[in-house]
Design a protein that fits this description.
This protein is about 50% helix and about 0% strand. The protein is mainly alpha-helical. α1 runs parallel beside α5, α7 runs antiparallel to α8 and α11 packs parallel to α12.
Length: about 475
């Protein structure tokens, strides 16, 4: 393999000490921590290309023991570390050597020297990264009084860490067995992440001489999938399969396909199980909207009272004199009110999106795939690629009418007038109506009246009707 300057530059910038997991001060490493560091080092050296050992493992053989390297998938030959080629006499050519042969000999020697130098750079870089993860007292025994750590290879460093601190304790084994049964959120995570986690724990138990059989592995993983309550129908299908078909080779392909189909149902609108996943989100949105609307209703009633009292006090004041009132709402209160109303609007938007994702078997797709006259009748032409709105137009006003709460025990209007506000309904103070609303919601219509609310809020309409009968 020809070593270029670009490859040497790549090795010089290999990795970063800052991204490596560091062991806290006064803490000793355990088998799990050391294994994680070694795995990170192996992943890093595998990115540096090499033609040795079949060229499929990078430089992993440079820092991995030969016995473990021989167990890697696709192993073809051992990784032989490059030795220093020594010096070569370029001035005196061997007998019967042509100039072309001399040039080839010189090129081969230089290439071997470059390979040796690059392997030394990789060793030094990886050794520096590993040592940065531990306190120096952890590996101080390897230090030579004159050479320091320059004569210590990465393989020797790893062997020392395992020998001194890599004891395979029963506590670690029990923790790995417990981690196999930890919950996993399959609604937001890919099932591939669960497979990686479970396989890693299974390999760890094998390394610690606590190997579990395939049946136990499948049983524990199946329990994790079942607890997620995401593809329970498929769990039941798996349990009903013949024993010969419930093998480890069939397990992950089966549930990968099931998870993929369920996510597709959830995105496009699926069965009741997919809807149950969305229900908690819908309930959360509705609860937040209800609480915020109650807050804004209480604040609006209090504010209307303050505005009414302020208007009454000013009507009896001396002309030309502006009186200050301590009952005027502060800027902070108004800001809180506006923020709450903006949050309600945002939650309603999110609720609308969530409802669109929910499956409805009675939902009709507007239009159709027809062409010609069907397009004029509301259908869609063949070349029309505009996105369809499966729910039709969103009626925000109807949503406001339905979600607004009123006190059923109230029998009379608090404000004795016939004012109406498109945002706040029929209970308004003297100077408050659609055209003079101080806190209008999005889509507020200033021309809305009590007789023609224009799809606005219907809060306390019944009290307004009773009042109109009393006061023609």
């Amino acid at each position: 393999m020809t070593v270029t300057n670009e490859m040497k530059m790549f090795v010089a910038g290999l990795g970063d000490d800052e991204v490596w997991t560091k062991l806290g001060q006064d803490l000793e490493p355990d088998y799990t921590f050391i294994t994680d560091i070694v795995e990170q080092a192996m992943n890093l050296v595998a990115t540096v290309r090499s033609d040795k050992a079949g060229g499929r493992t990078g430089h992993m053989g440079l820092i991995m023991p030969a016995a473990k390297f021989a167990l890697l998938p696709g192993f073809t030959a051992a990784f032989v570390k490059e030795a220093h080629p020594g010096d070569i006499d370029y001035t005196t050519a061997p007998a019967a050597t042509t100039s072309s042969q001399m040039a080839d000999r010189r090129y081969e020697h230089q290439n071997k020297l470059h390979v040796f130098e690059m392997e030394q750079m990789i060793e030094t870089k990886i050794k520096k990264h590993i040592m940065s993860c531990f306190d120096k007292d952890i590996y101080i025994e390897l230090k030579h009084h004159l050479l320091g750590y320059s004569n210590v290879t990465v393989e020797e460093l790893i062997r020392h860490l395992y020998a001194e601190y890599g004891e395979k304790t029963e506590l670690l084994q029990n923790k790995a067995l417990k981690d196999l049964e930890d919950d996993f959120d399959m609604t937001t995570n890919n099932i591939k992440l669960l497979k990686i986690r479970q396989e890693k724990l299974k390999l760890f138990l094998e390394d610690t001489e606590q190997k579990i059989n395939d049946g136990t592995y499948i049983k524990k993983t199946l329990g994790v999938i079942e607890k997620s309550n995401y593809i329970n129908k498929d769990v039941l299908k798996w349990r009903r399969r013949a024993l010969c078909d419930r093998t480890i080779a069939e397990f992950w392909p089966f549930f990968k396909e099931a998870h993929k189909k369920q996510k597709l149902k959830l995105l496009q609108g699926g069965d009741e199980q997919a809807n149950s996943v969305m229900q908690s989100t819908l309930n959360d949105y509705a609860l937040q909207i209800m609480r915020l609307e109650k807050y804004t209703d209480d604040q609006q009633v209090a504010l209307n009272g303050l505005i009414d009292r302020e208007s009454q006090s000013r009507s009896g004041s001396i002309p030309g004199v502006i009186e200050t009132s301590t009952s005027t709402p502060s800027l902070g209160e108004a800001t809180e009110m506006t923020t709450a109303q903006a949050l309600i609007a945002s939650l309603r938007s999110e609720l609308s999106v969530a409802q669109q994702q929910r499956y409805d078997p009675n939902r009709q797709q507007p239009g159709g795939p027809g062409r010609g006259d069907n397009r004029a009748a509301g259908g869609r032409g063949r070349g029309d690629r505009r996105p369809q709105n499966v729910l039709g137009a969103v009626d925000n006003d109807a949503d406001r009418r339905l979600t607004r709460r009123e006190d059923p025990n109230r029998l009379k209007k608090k404000f004795k007038n016939k004012n109406y506000c498109h945002t706040h309904g029929y209970e308004c103070s003297k100077d408050h109506d659609s055209s003079h609303c101080m806190w209008p919601e999005k889509g507020h219509k200033q021309c809305a009246t009590a007789e023609n609310p224009m799809g606005g809020c219907l809060l306390y309409k019944r009290l307004w009707q009773s009042y109109c009968l009393e006061v023609p």
